[in-house]
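Slides due. Your pick:
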Amino acid sequence: MNEELVKDICLYIDDNINENLTIDEIALEFHFNKFHLMRKFKENTGLTINQYINNRKIQNSMNELTSTDDSMLKVALNNGFNSLEYFSEQFTKIVGLSPSKFRNFSLVHAFPSFDQGGEDMDKLEQIQADLAELKELKEMINGMQNQTITENNKVKEPAKVLVKKISQKAA
């Protein structure tokens, strides 16, 4: 399986992200045995197909949470999750925060958008960059769960520490 085919599979998943995609359907679409497809996809991307699908759904959810006032249930349903509980579980697992905490942080601290890239950027590279940014954000959040800083004798909570570190990184 070459990089061009992996790119086509990623594009197919992105185009059908709100559908109830299965590995069987993807394998059928690309005329591969599903086990061969799963193994080669993982070798080429470092992710299982299901991980990739969930990461893309969560990334879309993050953008929706920061740009709309839709209810958590509506965001979950809009992004292909059949239940609020599963959405919340997957979101927390991938991002490190519950969807409501993420939305609150983004509203209060103006989180950056996760929809990056330009017209010249290859779609697969954009997807990989987006996933790497999600992973970095999760690691930053996990590393700061109990961390506090003081400034003028005022203790700042971890969310503010995260925003300060993001600002320093951007500068």
